[in-house]
Amino acid sequence: MPPTSGTRAPVIGVLALQGDVREHLAALAATGAEARTVRRPEELDSVAGLVIPGGESTTMSKLAALFGLLEPLRARVRDGLPVYGTCAGMIMLADKILDPRSGQETIGGIDMIVRRNAFGRQNESFEAEVAVAGVDGGPVEGVFIRAPWVESVGAEVEVLAEHGGHVVAVRQGNALATSFHPELTGDHRLHRLFGEMVRDSG
Length: 202
What we know:
- This protein is an alpha/beta fold.
- The strands form 3 sheets. Strands 2-1-3-4-12-11-10 form a 7-stranded mixed β-sheet.
- The chain is built from 6 helices and 12 strands.
């Protein structure tokens, strides 16, 4: 297990199969983390936390299977690896998808049911202020791009934020997920929160 204690920067990976990988790497680096790309099982073994970025969840799940990452990801998340999913990453962390595409699989880890593209298509993307429990300094700017929302959660899941009456941020143990993209705004508070989760888990 990579070192995370003391003053050493936490080593946090970004699943780099598809999606907005570069933006997450930059956001993590801005919080003082050592950010790395993860495409293979051996790279997954070298990180103390993992971000699953936005992108296209069906493509991401197929590529994870192709690269031999799906089962190792599931095993690490089951074992308590801190993980943060944004947009498509939220879908990947859901135990169940309400409307999955044919052959679509998830990593799981959060006892929730999500609805894909719930806020509309690409041309219906929008930004909105979102008050997130546990994040100080006022609301964060949420960028919603073909974003999912959470239909329901289990008893162990903490709802951190809602927008328009729909759940858009949750946490269960070491797993964090948001419907929106904080990595696109220059506001790194959610990445800083995740870095604290990684340090605490160490």
